[in-house]
Amino acid sequence: MNGIQLSNRLSNFPPYLFAEIDKKKSELRAKKIKFIDVSIGDPDIATPDGVIETLYKASKIKSNQKYALDQGSLKFRTAIKKWFKKRFDVSLCERSQILPLIGSKEGLIHFPLAYVNPGETILIPSPGYPGYRGAALFAGAKPYEMPLLAENKFLADLDKIPLSVRNRARMMYLNYPNNPTTALAPKKYLTEVVKFCRKYGIILAYDNAYSEIYFEEKPLSILEIPGAEEIALEFHSLSKTFCMTGFRVGWACGNPGLTAGLLKVKSNVDSGIFGAIQEAGANALSSQSAYVGKLRKTLKTRRDVFVSGLKELGFDEIYAGSTFYVWVRIPERFGSSIDMAEYLLMKKRIVATPGLGFGKHGEGFIRFAMTVDIDVLKKALKLLK
Ligand SMILES: Cc1ncc(COP(=O)(O)O)c(C=O)c1O
């Protein structure tokens, strides 16, 4: 059938950044051109053996081969509850405050459908994870970009949000440790955010996908902040912590009403997470803390080597606090981050992510992911000379 039109809703979507980069990579592969890929947050490191073994065994259990419960297995929710208490000293009710997700992206993107009406405003960080914009557009809402600027340590300046926007805003996405800027949010700042959201009746979708990818200070949960439980849902992922990106598993937790709202959307969309994956997730959270410690060490070594290499090459504004990204100001000779990404791809065969892809305030930066081995990073540094 020719001439089938996309809906207005989908036509308004910008192309999904990583899908565009994937297209370029496929073109190179089709031409048998080798390249170094430091563009995407998908670590090269294998998932813990114990997780794989649990998955294998659990997949043979007949009940796991059937539809799963929408709200996730009690076993997985209990493992999340215990992990959360140990990690953040926050007590969650496994029956009303924890909702397993098919990856945190799934929950983050479905969440506004429960609470935001068409025409209302969603505050999103810029630069920020591209999914937030998509989430706003799916809900028919207007995304309002909160600039994350280097001079503010990449913390959104709440005072700069106009009163008219505050009054129209229904939801705010926030993400620390931050992709792509690598910034961490101090407790004082998170306390201000909670106060702001409570004052203006804004629901806070706090994306903590990188809570375990830190090298110095431990990131906080928003639920450690007094009053957050009234307005926040926090999103977690097993993707980065246990190198389980392909498994598609994460969770949302926090306010019981918000958890129920997201569950209502999900029960109309999906039919739960494969039971064996939930068992594998429970194993990761309860038995793999040594793996996570080792992962952090590996990522820190990679980061340190790459950052000192970049400094030697003359890059002078480099941010590499937490997460496994390195966020770098582009040299002046490049007109834009897209120009630099094209140059790296065509001349150096390095795939990196242009800052503009994360929103207009990402312009002027490029992101490198430390998701490849140290030898590959050294090779990339040599090519950059
Ligand atoms: C900030 C942020 N949030 C959420 C996600 C989604 O992770 P997943 O859906 O694999 O849990 C990502 C993935 O890169 C991310 O960078």
Note the topology.
Layout lengths: L7 H4 L5 H14 L5 E2 L11 H11 L14 H15 L9 E4 L2 H12 L5 E6 L4 H8 L3 E6 L15 H6 E7 L11 H14 L2 E5 L20 H4 E6 H4 L8 E5 L1 H12 L7 H13 L1 H24 L5 E2 L5 E5 L7 H12 L1 E2 L1 E2 L10 E5 L4 H11 L1
Parallel strand pairs: 1-11, 3-4, 3-5, 5-6, 6-7
Antiparallel strand pairs: 2-8, 7-8, 9-10, 10-13, 12-13
The tally of helices reads 15
User: Which architecture of the largest domain per CATH?
Assistant: 3-Layer(aba) Sandwich
Gap from first CA to last CA: 51 Å
| CATH domain topology of the largest domain | Aspartate Aminotransferase, domain 2
Q: Largest sheet, described in full?
A: 7 strands, mixed
Give the overall pLDDT as a whole number: 96
Spell out the helices and strands N to C. Answer: HHEHHEHEHEHEHEHEHEHHHEEHEEEH
How are the strands of the largest sheet arranged? 2-8-7-6-5-3-4
